[in-house]
Amino acid sequence: MSDTAAVQVAAPPAIAAPLPLRDIAPWTIFGLLMLLALYFVGVEEGATALFSGMYVHEFVHDGRHLLGFPCH
């Protein structure tokens, strides 16, 4: 009998498949909506205002204080 050692060949590493769009799209949409909400709560006034007047500012006024944004 021969005492030969068995040689094991490792399989090549698997290449991860890209995530399908149906898995990424909801998180992308959620992130964009959160950025839009952050804009309206934190920045919507003055030179960067999308709407004239103080309508949005007054609507999110308490939220601004809760999140620590200065407004007055």
Helix content: 40-55%
What composes the largest sheet? none
Category by helix and strand content:
mainly alpha
SSE ordering: HHH
Categorize the overall geometry.
Answer: rod-shaped
Determine the mean pLDDT. Answer: 81
Rg over CA atoms, rounded to whole Å, is 27 Å
**N- to C-terminal distance:** 91 Å
Give the strand tally: 0
Uncertain spans, ≥5 residues at pLDDT below 50?
A: none
Number of helices: 3
Q: What percent strand?
A: under 5%
Question: Your description of this structure?
Answer:
With 72 residues, the protein is mostly helical. The protein has helices at 21-42, 55-59, 61-67. The radius of gyration is 27 Å and the shape is rod-shaped. It starts with 20 loop residues before the first helix and ends in a 5-residue tail after the last helix. The model has no long low-confidence stretch (mean pLDDT 81).
List the helices and strands and how they pair.
Blueprint: H1 21-42, H2 55-59, H3 61-67
In short:
The protein has 72 residues and is mainly α. Helix content is 47%, strand content 0%.
Attribute tags:
mainly alpha; 72 residues
